[in-house]
Structures are given as C-alpha cells and as structure tokens.
Write a structure and sequence with these properties.
With 352 residues, this protein is α/β, with parallel strands linked by helices. It folds into 2 domains: 137 residues, Rossmann fold; 165 residues, Dihydrodipicolinate Reductase, domain 2 (2-Layer Sandwich), CATH 3.30.360.10. The chain contains 10 helices and 17 strands. Strands 16-15-14-13-7-12-11-8-17 form a 9-stranded mixed sheet. Strands 3-2-1-4-5-6 form a 6-stranded parallel sheet, with helices on both faces. Helix 1 packs across helix 9, helix 4 packs parallel to helix 5 and helix 5 runs antiparallel to helix 10. It is globular, with a radius of gyration of 21 Å. The relative contact order is 0.16.
Amino acid sequence: MSSNNASPLRVGIVGAGDNTRRRHIPGLKAIPGVQITGVVNSSAESSARVASEFQIPKVYPDWKALVNDPAIDAVVIGTWPNLHCEVTCAALKAGKHVLCEARMARNLAEARQMKATADAHPDRVAMLVPSPMGLVVDREVRQLLHDGYIGDLREVMVFGADDQFYDYSQFLHWRQDRDISGVNVLTLGILQETLLRWVPQATRVFAQSQTFEPVRPNPVGPGNRQVTVPDSVQILTQLPNRARGLYHFSGVDVHGMGKQIHLYGTAGTIKVVFGEKETLYAGRVGQEGLREITIPAERLGEWRVEAEFIGAIQGSEAVQRTTFADGLKYMEFSEAVDRSATTSTPVDLPLE
C-alpha cells in the first residue's frame, strides 16, 4: 500500500460536518506530504464556505465527481450514515483509499457490502473513524485485564444516558431519522465499539426500546415529522463464559448517568467514566472502594486517526482503529438489538 513519497498524497473530502472540520481537515493538513485538494458538501454554498475556510482549491458539484477524479488518491467521507455505503463502495472501486466516518452504515447489510468491497480491493486502505471513547485509557485497561486484575469477567454495565433529546420543541435531529441513521441508536454503537476493545462480543441480546414523544418539528418545512429512532433502549446480554451484560441508553434522562462502562469480575472492578476527561477507576476484593488510576503519560492514548490513515496508505503502519471487520462487529450488535426490540424476543449472535 505504499505510495510515491516524492509526490503529495491528494485527499478529497466528501461531507464536511463538525467532526471533519474540527478533526480530520486540521489533522490531515498537519501531515507533511498531504494535500487536501477538493471538497464537496451538502450544497454548493456550504462547499464553497468550507473551501474558503480551509483553503481547499477545488469544489466539486457532487460526490461522484470527486470520487471519480483521477487527481484524488484518498477520500474522507464525513457524511451522514445514509451515504456511507454508497460513497465508500464507489470510492474503493474507483481506486481510492477510504476513511469513513462512524457509524459505519445504516444497517448490517450495508456494512457487509462495504466490507466485501474493501476485501475485493486489498491494495486500498479502508478505515473507519473510531469511537473516541476509551482511546485515552485503552492501554491501561487492556493491561489490567491482561494481568487478571478483575479475575474472571462476570458482569458488564454500559450507560449512555443524557438529556440531548429531552426538549421536544426542538427540530427533529438527523439521528432521530431512521432513513438517515438506520439502526444506530443514541450512543449504542460508539460505546459497543469501545467495549469490544476489552471484552468479547455478546452471544445473545434481549432488548426493549421506547420513543416517548413520537413527533418533532420538521427541520425543512412546516408541521411535524415522525421520530423513527427510539430515545430509550435497555439491553440484557449473554457473553461467552457465562458473563452477563446490562445496557441503558437514553436521550431523555435529565441529570442522567452520562457515558460509562463497568467491568465486574471475580477479583475486582474496572469503571471508566467518559466526559470532558476520561477517568479510570479500579478496585480489588478487600479494598475499601474504587480508586482513580493515574496513568503515566507514556501510557496515555491519543487521537491520531488522520496520521494512522496516512501511515497505512504509505505502508508505515497498519490500521488499528478502526478496521471494517471491527465495524461489522458493532453493526451486527446494533442490528441484533434492533431486531430484538422490534420482535420482543432474544436474538442470538452471530447473525445469519
């Protein structure tokens, strides 16, 4: 996957949302030998604004024109999930390397199509933007688990509960529109991706969901629109070796628990709290309680998504966070949760 280091690596941006503007574009611009040569956003006007803000020389009329331009070597896809599959597959078939924003796709079928297309083009880098949660503490949590700090895993608890959608007078958000977001509910996928860095995939899920306010004001016209993504989800899981999981997600919990992952074992407990600062707590049997773990600077993880993507293209490193195979795992879990909540029955993993 190496490239000619004498020539600049030319990157095109399809969809310049918040994460793309805050992270991807500045991150790519900071890498020597990388040029962001073109952009296309949701409209001609917004494309021009992004190009002007970041000094990007070319604006494309649509994403297909960018993807098919032989002057582009790699494509960063920052659109909503409803375009991830189509743009990713087209870009790979056009010979481009791809960095696709999370969540991977709207559903498992689209994710599988993306993975199959990537597998058919093994000389192209196919990478997903990873869950940022857990990147800072990941190495320390892995070491604690490797050292047997908690003993045998017994229970997992995952919380993603806040009030982001509590105000029903606000316009319908794209994350509440199944046509755009698919089976991606609240922070389910992003926290499951983080959890899977530390524990195995569940073998069975049993889920329920609820939408407390079924309509919201229409963001693009008069009247209201239907809310088609739940704002409350609870999940019970079975993991290998008899361990159990409990998940609670909500967008309507005033003073909710926020985002946390707890790992309970025969010998101790690990708790990670995500917020402005990631905090790791741990405690073993016989100790009075959990204590905050101070992680040495050299063991702290960091966001280096853009550098990893370019490094993989240049052949200096492999994709670690996140491969399409990793994305399939959290998409399969999200799909299983959706099926279980819809049918009110347990669903076994892996899915057929």
